[in-house]
Design brief:
By secondary structure, this protein is α/β, with parallel strands linked by helices. The chain contains twelve helices and 13 strands. The C terminus is likely disordered.
Length: 343
């Protein structure tokens, strides 16, 4: 099977490419990525010269380029997205353009080319705040609370509309917060690890009691491969690990593993509209496809910390590359609008 992977140079995408090409089944991959600040071809050095892997640089909003690159593929796994909530709050228009219009372009191309399977990778953030004692299953109402999550909910609905209107072979997955190797250091866990390694302050929003379900990227990739192989068309599959933990506890866990003091923690004013709790009910994918998470949270965090420790050159590269322009633009703005709160 020849798989068209969008955003394959990003965090989850690159891990998925490695996973797919390591399976016994005969897969080949066309990696289509715009190489924006969070995309990095260094993530895929180990497969760059393989016969069953090719890379095309392109934007998912460019219909002609998408159709040309997708020619001859059997399936699409769609990761490409602007995915940072803070960025979407500061500057929502690019997030809507990429996540909504880009998804529409891909759907139209896949339909025109008669692609046999389209896996749309979404997020648990589309469900919004989940009250304590509850977990969102696939029928839970969508209640996105940021421009980012709204854009993902909109793209989910586009996939659903193509399934219903055109008999399109689309499947939606919604995963909880991923962590692991190659994650760009704007996201919570790699930012905390990177700052702690450099003895820099670890910024924690508000009281730090926002709860997230932490899923190791390898477990997520296994789930996506199963959905690609055997998922039912038109269905939604939640992918969560059941590792719900407050952000503050996660930071303390990271500091403990690194042997760093809690005095590095710095409270900052909370993000506008910040969701307090995400929690997924994932029994459907277990029941139908036999998936279950395999990575213990403590083991996964230690493995992730060791990866960042061992890949200092990669971390330095992403911090000094295209990310620098984004950092100067976004964080200078944020620092002007968010005051430090004493712990």
């Amino acid at each position: 099977m020849k798989v068209f992977v969008t955003g394959g140079a990003g965090f989850i995408g690159s891990n998925f490419v490695y996973h797919l090409l390591g399976l016994p089944a005969a897969y080949s991959v066309v990696n289509y990525d715009a190489l924006t600040y969070a995309g990095n071809l260094l993530n895929l050095e180990r497969v760059a010269s393989q016969q069953n892997y090719s890379f095309v640089r392109g934007n998912i909003c460019d219909a002609a380029a998408v159709c040309a690159a997708m020619q001859g593929c059997d399936a699409v796994v769609h990761f490409a997205a602007e995915s940072h909530v803070d960025r979407s709050i500061y500057e929502p228009a690019p997030i809507i353009e990429t996540n909504v219009r880009g998804t529409l372009v891909l759907l139209q191309a896949a339909r025109e080319l008669k692609i046999s399977r389209f896996v749309h990778v979404s997020t648990d953030e589309v469900y919004g705040d989940i009250p304590h004692g509850l977990a969102s299953d696939e029928n839970y109402p969508l209640q996105p609370n940021s421009p980012y999550s709204a854009s993902k909910a909109a793209s989910d609905m586009l996939v659903r509309s193509f399934v219903r209107t055109y008999g399109f072979p689309g499947i939606i997955t919604r995963a909880s917060n991923n962590y692991g190797p190659y994650q760009f250091p704007e996201k919570f866990i790699p930012l905390m690890i990177a700052n702690a390694l450099d003895n820099k302050p670890l910024p924690i929003y508000g009281d730090g009691l926002q709860e997230r379900d932490w899923l190791h990227v390898e477990d997520h990739c296994r789930a996506l491969a199963l959905v690609l192989e055997r998922g039912r068309e038109g269905e939604v599959y939640n992918v969560g690990a059941g590792n719900t933990e407050p952000n503050l506890s996660m930071v303390r866990r990271i500091l403990r593993v690194l042997g760093k003091p809690e005095s590095l923690m710095t409270r900052v004013a909370d993000r506008p509209g910040h969701d307090r709790r995400y929690a997924l009910e994932s029994s459907k994918i277990t029941r139908e496809l036999g998936w279950s998470p395999g990575m213990d949270l403590e083991q996964g965090i230690r493995q992730t910390i060791n990866w960042y420790r061992s890949n200092g050159a990669w971390l330095q590269h992403v911090r000094e590359g295209d990310y620098r322009e984004y950092y100067d633009k976004y964080y200078t703005h944020r620092d002007k609008t968010m005051k430090t709160v004493t712990a």
